[in-house]
Amino acid sequence: MESESKRKKESPNTAELAVTASFPDEVLEIVLSLLTSHRDRSSVSLVCKDWYRAERWSRTQVFIGNCYSVSPEILTRRFPNIRSVTLKGKPRFSDFNLVPPNWGADIHAWLVAFAAKYPFLEELRLKRMAVSDESLEFLASNFPNFKLLSLLSCDGFSTDGLAAIATHCKNLTELDIQENGIEDSSGSWLSCFPESFTSLEVLNFANLTSEVNTDALERLVSRCKSLKVLKVNKSISLEQLQRLLVRAPQLEELGTGSFLQDLTARPYADLESAFNNCKNIHTLSGLWEAVPLYLPALYNSCANLTFLNLSYTALQSGEFAKLVVHCPRLRRLWVLDTVEDKGLEAVGSNCPLLEELRVFPADPFDEEIIHGVTEEGFVAVSFGCRRLHYVLYFCRQMTNAAVATIVQNCPNFTHFRLCIMTPGLPDYLTNEPMDEAFGAVVKTCSKLQRLSVSGLLTDLTFEYIGKYAKNLETLSVAFAGRSDRGMQCVLEGCPKLRKLEIRDCPFGNEALLSGLEKYESMRSLWMSACNVTMNACRRLAKQMPRLNVEVMKEDGSDDSQADKVYIYRTVAGPRRDAPPSVLTL
Amino acid sequence: MSTTPLEHDYIGLSESSSVPRSSDKLSYSSSSSSCTEENYTSSNKACLNFKETELRLGLPGSQSPGRKPSHGLSLFGKDIENNNSNSNSNNTNGYAAPSPLKSLVSGAKRGFSDALDGVSRNWGLSINGKPDAELGKGAVLYSPRGGLDDKCKIMKEVDVLPLSPKPVQEKKNQVPALNENEPTSAPAAKAQVVGWPPIRSFRKNTMASNLVKNNDAAEGKSGSGCLYVKVSMDGAPYLRKVDLKIYSNYMELSSALEKMFSCFTIGQCDSHGLPGQDGLSESRLMDLLHGSEYVLTYEDKDGDWMLVGDVPWDMFTETCRRLRIMKGSEAIGLAPRAMEKCKNRT
Q1: Do B10 and A312 touch (CB under 8 A)?
Q2: Integer-rounded Cα radius of gyration of chain B
């Protein structure tokens, strides 16, 4: 590869001839079409012009991590044959209400461009985009081959939009609606799937609230023989679930509805046998309002479970422990902290294959009630689950020693997201900052890609991160650090850093400007409630024309302060659709 | 920005903190802040506790760090297993025996908020695992609320059934006062910090609504661990006993009873009536009376036989002495009144 490009530099004509003679474009395209990784494709496209050309013609999937880093025109110009698009829009902190409404990331302009250039578009995966009903209707009407729609954490649409999709997308295989700001006016959208429609393989409407027509759902499930993933919402009762399961024994992923019901009409045994009949279920979620009474119906199904999502089910430790005993093959587990340390100990004892653990707080805003998990639960899991590499852990207390033990047991962490819910809380035993905890994480876990820190942290934490976290790509920081030096250490030290999001830290202009060159190699930087001024942002914007520097002003704040700053690299230039509260410098 | 350590800034006490409060307070999940206050006043309850007979209760500021006695030993370097129902202890996690040290840690949690108020910024005073020397300090910090400790040791082992409503009330009275004294106490401050902890709105709202529901159910509950009542069924050869504490609404009780007595029950009921929070829906009652031969009744504290479902669940659990699954024919006399009540409610 390299020798060819070298030859090309010396004598372009001979090199071109050589390449054309030995490797026709068509062959190259076929070979490259086997490449699926986006990073590999990016590398390939940089080799030489021929390879760039071949790559762009053969590419069918594109992933755009920041919808403003490129424009629809640029995208469609470069890649003529795209069938699958993944787009991410708003900065991640928009999930936590830190981004003003109408910020942007509207999908419509993209859809218009796709309708012209990619009429055979099949898949669209959107995260944190603004999606309107009109856009969904447009999508449903303009892409006859459309197969897959996945909306995660989007907003701006209602169930009417879903109705349009159900009505018009004759080839739909996947409809995945997750955790969106959706206006859920009625469940009638589900009834819009025509009786002739049979291609559905994935249906996830777990996060909608309106009741759907259960007869329509039953009929839909019956005729879609390839249905593999079914995640229903809370309105579906146990009795209805049983009827669905009986019609779809081939299911692989199941999200139940409400698990709390008066089972007078249908005996419990029917439910159990329906579950037993679904021998392929490896993912289980839902279980809204589960009462321990009916959980044993699941026990047999749990034997093959690899992913159990109980994050909307408030189970206590005892009943959870009884359940988890039946899940020896579990690889991913999401729970609420109502299971407490004891529940996590049961996980450690029963799930040796566990790779991912997420513990969400059932009641994050109350400090007074004794609830939740502590460092002990986490430590217990680390002793039992040595393959653990992804953790998201919300707790109210932690110690440096515990974290050191945890990473010693599990040195393969790729994602370590620890949220000690009280900001600025020190090690509750030693009273010291949590610097050593995260120091241990970065020193021990050389494969670490994503880190979220919390607790009382000085600049030392960031010195450690800059020094040791050589594979770190995403870092989230809140209420931490002492001075600009902290942020500087990270910017200078982490070569693979792509996303840095900071809130409520004492980092100022010096820190911001120290990363001048760095930001072009990153996807984005978010800084809010720090000490950055408008002037510094202007200076940054001036010096780095290929960065978009956007400032979101709060009402009534000091004019010179840049309350929220969002900086990202782009080839599309400054955006023109920003609302008045967002200033593009 | 002041050079004070950040641990004091997050609450927004620092003037330079630019975390906006006014507008964002509104946009911030209001359900959660109302939830917070509700929890605060009834924080005696383990609100998501369905079945466990172990109640996890606690006072404001109480927390149970380590649960296992063995861990407790290493953490505190002192044998804590012997400390039971100490007058200062309020650790009620139901796992390990509570210890005064643990209560100090928890009491010290209160001290953390105190510290932020400017009483003391010395971390040493607030959270400290070292015993003896700090014991005195911790106790001093906690003493203004010492009264609470004594009255609120509501634990599984202790039979305080007749007394318990009182402490709950006292606590209810005291807790808002606490709140007033500390305008920047932790719960109120939490409501001001937008987007923290970092949980998506959907999840936040779902959990908040679950919590409110459970709190409604939990409020008014007595503090004892279990409440077994006899259940008799006309025609059955023997009686059963159920623990009313493990259910949080009539639906759960009803389904449990049907499971229990399924071998005797003849009638089948449709379950398309959506149950209300506080009692049986009209259709459910109709089912019971018309579709089934049996009716669920209970004897209350006054010795009267009442139809199950009239009063809110919590009132029911407090007044119910025993249950009787009565033949429908005998219950006819109760029907009109009950139906009227249902109609009024729905």
Answers
A1: no
A2: 24
Option in B47, B93, B186 nearest A367 (CB): B186
Nearest CA in chain B to A558: B18
Amino acid making up residue B235: G
B32–A561: do the CB atoms touch at under 8 Å? no
Question: How many CB atoms are closer than 10 A to CB B155?
Answer: 25
Residue B320 corresponds to which tokens in the numbers above?
């119910």
Q: Is the dihedral of CA A557, A562, A568, A571 positive or negative?
A: positive
Q: Distance (Å) from the C-alpha of residue B151 to the closest C-alpha of chain A? A: 17
Spell out which residues of chain A touch residue B126, defining contact as CB-CB under 8 Å.
431
Would you say A278 and A245 are in contact if contact means Cβ atoms under 8 Å apart? yes
| B264 closest CA partner among B305, B245, B236, B223 | B236
CA distance A289 to chain B (A): 8
Residues of A in contact with B19 (CB under 8 A): 504, 529
- Partners of residue A338 in chain B, C-beta under 8 Å: 48
| Token pair belonging to B247 | 């259910």
Cα dihedral sign for B219, B220, B224, B229? negative
Bridge partners (DSSP) listed for residue A126: A87, A151
Domain A433-447+459-584, second-level architecture: Alpha-Beta Horseshoe (3.80)
d(CA B207, CA B143): 34
The H or E element that residue A260 is part of is: none
Say yes or no for a CB contact (<8 Å) between B198 and A265.
Answer: no
- For B308, the token pair is 């199950």
Residues on chain A touching B22 (C-beta within 8 angstroms): 555-556
Distance CA A509, CA A539 (A): 10
Chain A segment 154-183 residues within 8 A of B by beta carbon are 179-181
Instruction: Please give the residue of chain B at the shortest CA–CA distance from A417.
Output: B198
Neighboring chain A residues of B109 at a CB cutoff of 8 Å: 367
> Quick one: tokens of A298?
């699941």
Question: Please, are residues A333 and A351 in contact by the beta-carbon 8 Å criterion?
Answer: yes
pLDDT by position in tens, chain B (length 346):
444 444 443 433 333 434 343 433 333 333 333 333 333 344 344 344 444 444 444 444 444 443 444 433 333 334 433 444 343 433 333 333 334 433 333 333 343 333 334 333 333 333 333 444 433 333 333 333 333 334 433 333 333 334 334 433 333 333 333 333 333 334 444 445 888 999 998 888 887 776 665 555 444 333 445 678 888 888 777 888 888 888 888 888 888 888 887 765 544 343 443 444 334 444 444 454 444 567 888 888 777 888 888 888 888 888 888 888 887 776 665 544 444 444 454 4
Spell B29-67 as b/e; 16+ CB within 10 A means b: bebbbebbbbbbbbbbbbbbbbbbbbbbbbbbbbbbbbb
DSSP assignments along A89-145, one per residue: -S-GGGGGT-S-TT---BSHHHHHHHHHH-TT--EEEEES-B--HHHHHHHHHH-TT
CA distances from A311 to A331, A335, A416, B72, B203 (A): 15, 4, 18, 29, 9
Q: Which of A370, A476, A563 sits opposite B18 (nearest CB)?
A: A563
Q: Does A322 touch chain B (CB under 8 A)?
A: no
For tokens 């009943």, what's the residue? Answer: A319
Determine the Cα–Cα distance for residues B84 and B100; give it in Å rounded to an integer.
9
Inter-chain residue contact B195 with A93, CB threshold 8 Å = yes
Q: Which residues of A37-53 are buried (b: 16+ CB within 10 A; e: fewer)?
A: eeeebeebbebbebbee
The enclosing H or E element of A552 equals strand A547-552
Q: Check B202 against A362: CB less than 8 A apart.
A: no
Nearest CA in chain A to B34: A365
